[in-house]
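lol forgot to send this yesterday, sorry. struct tokens for the thing we talked abt
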């Protein structure tokens, strides 16, 4: 009896040992990772990778960071202040969701209800980020955006894709199409949420373009800058819970002035990825870092923002440009008021600016003019660069009142502009006016000068005539006096 029990225990032990060996054999490819020391060594080595913007003459030296690739870009102009291997194709992880939310905001209605399908919920791998939505439940699109940007919920991204495009696959096609429209050339997306896939990749440059469009939307900025969101129970969603943003510059762990929002990301292959936007000193900067180790994705982002805000300045182009400035052309103006409420036909866009290092001046910039502009109110674009590095651009605008009346040649030498008259289209009523106020002032001025000349001439003539009369009178008096004197000599 005792022998049988021992034998049974030995059998159990052998079975457990065999099971552990089998599990180790099958799970080894999945669970074996680089050690912490190896990851830290790789991160330290990445600090010595080349930074392309540091190679620009007289450009501020950027910080050495442990990201494999990184970019600091102005969201309004596309000017790149810091570049480290910005076109390297990498896994973006959950930062993919910025594009998902951008499309949802552009094409959806925040009050619409989004229902969760079986595929949206159960197509996710075990252990991936979610917020516990069940098949058949529904929440508003606005709540979905909070779930994606604050909670990084993968099933919510799937459900939003189905709501917008009818299916996840169709939405993914829309993602690639929208990315191409934004100028992305090294990106390909295969899912809505950034889950690992060899064919799901982008670059920090492409993602900065996507983020620049994302952070132009005030509602997306508000949602993406939310530290904590409360999901309350409803008739279509019974749970009461909170989601907390893991972005340390948003949830208060790292306080940074001017942060507008951002998105975290992580997978074993991508490592830590991060997108953040901050605004200061007239600059709205987007920072993207790929392949970092926590928490340096946040500290390196702070370093890059400090680098940008402390070493660069914004300069308005129209206020500083003298080489191509178009001055008012006298009588010829455009407007709808014949008494002078008008403006010059040509002008440089007053809202455009360049972003340049604090150590250089506007006069140090090189310019290039592009006349292949399709917009009827713009005849050329002036691009500015410093040592072949783009720093901003401005449009040379044709006043909107004249767009259908005049066509400008593509030859501009400083302030010399060639104008060709064309017949206006019947549907347009825009007109070039002569500034009557200036004409009237000119006529009055001319008339005043003429009248003044007449008055002066009359005065001169009157003076001459008066002298002649005085002379005649004097001669008569002299003759009379001589006659009296002659008569006095005789004694009658």
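and heres what i got for the seq, position by position
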């Amino acid at each position: 009896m005792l022998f049988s029990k021992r034998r049974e225990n030995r059998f159990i032990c052998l079975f457990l040992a065999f099971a552990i060996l089998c599990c180790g054999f099958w799970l080894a490819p999945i669970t074996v990772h680089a050690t912490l020391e190896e990851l830290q060594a790789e991160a330290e080595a990445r600090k010595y990778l080349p930074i392309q913007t540091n190679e620009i003459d007289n450009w501020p030296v950027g910080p050495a960071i442990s990201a494999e690739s990184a970019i600091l870009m102005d969201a309004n102009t596309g000017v790149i202040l810091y570049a480290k291997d910005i076109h390297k194709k990498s896994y973006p992880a959950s930062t993919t969701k910025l594009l998902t939310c951008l499309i949802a905001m552009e094409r959806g209605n925040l009050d619409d209800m989004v229902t969760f399908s079986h595929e949206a919920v159960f197509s996710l791998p075990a252990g991936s980020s979610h917020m516990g939505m069940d098949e058949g439940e529904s929440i508003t699109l606005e709540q979905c955006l909070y779930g994606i940007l604050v909670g990084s919920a993968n099933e919510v991204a799937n459900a939003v894709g189905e709501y917008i495009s009818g299916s996840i696959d169709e939405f993914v096609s829309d993602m690639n199409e929208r990315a191409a429209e934004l100028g992305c050339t090294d990106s390909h997306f295969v899912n809505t949420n950034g889950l690992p896939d060899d064919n799901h990749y982008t670059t920090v440059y492409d993602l900065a373009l996507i983020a620049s469009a994302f952070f132009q939307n005030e509602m997306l900025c508000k949602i993406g800058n939310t530290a904590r969101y409360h999901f309350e129970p409803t008739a279509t969603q019974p749970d009461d819970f909170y989601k907390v943003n893991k972005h340390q510059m948003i949830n208060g762990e790292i306080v940074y002035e001017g942060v507008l929002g951002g998105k975290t990301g992580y997978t074993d292959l991508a490592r830590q990825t991060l997108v953040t936007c901050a605004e200061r000193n007239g600059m709205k900067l987007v920072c993207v870092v790929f392949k970092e180790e926590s928490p340096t994705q946040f500290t390196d982002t702070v370093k890059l923002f400090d680098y940008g805000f402390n070493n660069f300045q914004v300069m308005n182009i129209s206020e500083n440009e003298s080489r191509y400035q178009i001055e008012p052309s006298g009588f010829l103006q455009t407007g709808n008021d014949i008494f002078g409420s008008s403006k010059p036909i040509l002008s440089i866009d007053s809202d455009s600016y360049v972003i340049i290092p604090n150590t250089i001046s506007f006069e140090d910039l090189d310019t290039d003019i592009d006349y292949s502009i399709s917009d009827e109110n713009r005849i050329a674009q002036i691009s500015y660069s410093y040592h072949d590095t783009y720093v901003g651009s401005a449009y040379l605008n044709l006043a909107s009142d004249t767009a259908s009346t005049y066509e400008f040649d593509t030859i501009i030498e400083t302030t010399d502009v060639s104008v060709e008259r064309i017949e206006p289209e019947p549907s347009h009523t825009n007109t070039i006016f002569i500034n009557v106020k200036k004409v009237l002032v000119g006529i009055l001025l001319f008339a005043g000068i003429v009248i003044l000349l007449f008055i002066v001439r009359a005065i001169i003539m009157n003076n001459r005539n008066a002298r002649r009369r005085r002379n005649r009178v004097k001669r008569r008096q002299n003759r009379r006096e001589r006659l009296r004197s002659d008569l006095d000599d005789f004694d009658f």
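The chain is about 35% helix and 25% strand. anyway ping me if u want another try
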